[in-house]
Amino acid sequence: MDRIEELTIEAGERGIEVHEREIPVPGMSAAYIKTETGEHIIIRQDGTQAERACWLAGELGHHYTGSDRRLHYNAADDWRAEAKARKWAHDRLLSPDAIRTAARNTDDIYEIAFTLNVSVEFLRESIDWYMARGLWSPDVPPEESNGEKTSVNTIPE
Fold first, then answer.
1. DSSP string across the chain
2. IrrE N-terminal-like domain: from which residue to which, for each copy (predicted)?
3. Distance from C-alpha of 77 to C-alpha of 8, rounded to nearest angstrom
4. Kind of pairing between the strands at 143-145 and 148-150
5. 23, 123, 135, 154: which has the highest count of C-beta atoms within 10 A?
């Protein structure tokens, strides 16, 4: 089962319908909509598998963090709600250990993102999030992997 299927099942268990559609709003990749008749997540159908999984996790984050109906970010509270949902998604899809494990044999961020089945943008945001929480540091000595030293903390921009 891939990540999209897993997240779609999770959403369904919570009564949320997931729809993959064309979204006619420029720059919008996904939306979480809670109405009197139900909850819906709409994700753009034209993204990669990894992008769609990240978008879906982010919108599920809105459900779990209680932040919904943020179509226009005009107030600081709107941005905070988006940040809470994104943080939930980072914790749901990745962990510092998962990133380190994927990075044992390469420091190429594109290969690491591919291995983890997330977008490069999402991986970078996750690392930033874990650094802010003190769970990731570029100053950590390289880890040992099969006798070879690798530096998983120097992922290029």
1. --HHHHHHHHHHHTTEEEEEE---STT--EEEEEETTEEEEEEETTS-HHHHHHHHHHHHHHHHHT-----S--SHHHHHHHHHHHHHHHHHH--HHHHHHHTTT---HHHHHHHHTS-HHHHHHHHHHHHHTTS--TTSPPEEETTEEE-TT----
2. 13-125
3. 28
4. antiparallel
5. 123
Higher-confidence residue of 144 and 88: namely 88
pTM of the model: 0.80
- 92 phi, psi to nearest 5 deg: -75, -40
Token digits of residue 140: 């950590």
Of the candidates 92, 27, 26, 28, the one whose C-alpha atom is nearest the C-alpha of residue 58 is 92
pLDDT digits (tens, 9 = 90+) for 95-127: 988 998 898 888 899 999 999 999 999 999 999
Q: How many CB atoms lie within 10 A of CB 120?
A: 15
Contact 64, 88 (CB under 8 A): yes
pLDDT at 140 over 90: no
- The chain-wide mean pLDDT, for the chain, equals 82
Question: CA angle, corner 53, sides to 8 and 5, nearest 5?
Answer: 30
